[in-house]
Amino acid sequence: MTAALITGASTGLGRELANLFAADGIDVVVVSSERSAAQLAAVAEELRTRHDVRAHPITMDLAQPGAGAELVARVDELGVDIQYLVNNAGFGILGLKIQESDPVAVSKMVQLNVVTLTDLTTLYAARMVMAGRGAILNISSIAAYVIPHGLEAGYSASKAYVRSFSEAVASDLHGTGVTCTHLAAGPTRTEFAQTAGVGDWSRLNRFIMDPAPVAAAGYAAMRAGRVMVMPGLGNKVMRAAAPLSPSRRLKALVSGCFVARR
């Protein structure tokens, strides 16, 4: 049985992406942290009922060392063949200078955003190439295209890695029947903002998107085998303008969107 594996699937983009796969009749394995177990179970039940697919929920902490290999082993126990991999799970630490940040939290962010994503991509890419088919969708960010400006050093760097890694993987996979796409999402109405410490989004209102069209753009790009997609005209404008704006101006704009944490 072929299926899609979607991490961070209890809410937001992950939930929307799981629904898109299920709507196309593709079984899903949905993953979230244990604190979101109830939400994840509800998502799985909704997908089964609405789309008549198999939906397997798995709860685990993907920010722990070795989480990628552990998740693959748990999926193998289900007896499903993962044809689609969506690395959506991630979080940000925003609004703090690096010297004010919790080193443990920063390490977990890099572990989840970078290491686990890399492990899952590497492990499943090899299997997909052997099968001669498959698609990988990694969630990057417009932050990967903006010049460094402080107050989100670790997060921006992690997403720059996802962009670079995904584009290199796409090149490696060329001609194998397997593709790798990265979705460069801009500000989106999900729980990410609250967990990251973002407060007033009013200065970015023209750029904020709902999760459904962002997920739809990523899903369509993945199914088409595109290397990258950046949904939203406003995000494209930000990407084009960022290299022309001094770092201090970007910092002033971004800092105005963060909750004071002191």
Automatic annotation (TrEMBL):
Xref: CDD domains: SDR_c
Entry annotated with the keyword Oxidoreductase: yes
Alphabetical list of Gene3D superfamilies matching this protein: NAD(P)-binding Rossmann-like Domain
Single annotated GO MF: oxidoreductase activity
Keywords, ordered alphabetically: Oxidoreductase
UniProt entry tagged with the keyword Nucleotidyltransferase: no
Residue stretches spanning the membrane: none
Pfam families attached to this UniProt entry: adh_short
Domain of life according to the entry: Bacteria
Family note: Belongs to the short-chain dehydrogenases/reductases (SDR) family.
PANTHER family recorded: ALCOHOL DEHYDROGENASE
Protein name: Short-chain dehydrogenase
Protein species of origin: Mycobacterium asiaticum
Upper classification of the organism: Bacteria, Bacillati, Actinomycetota, Actinomycetes, Mycobacteriales
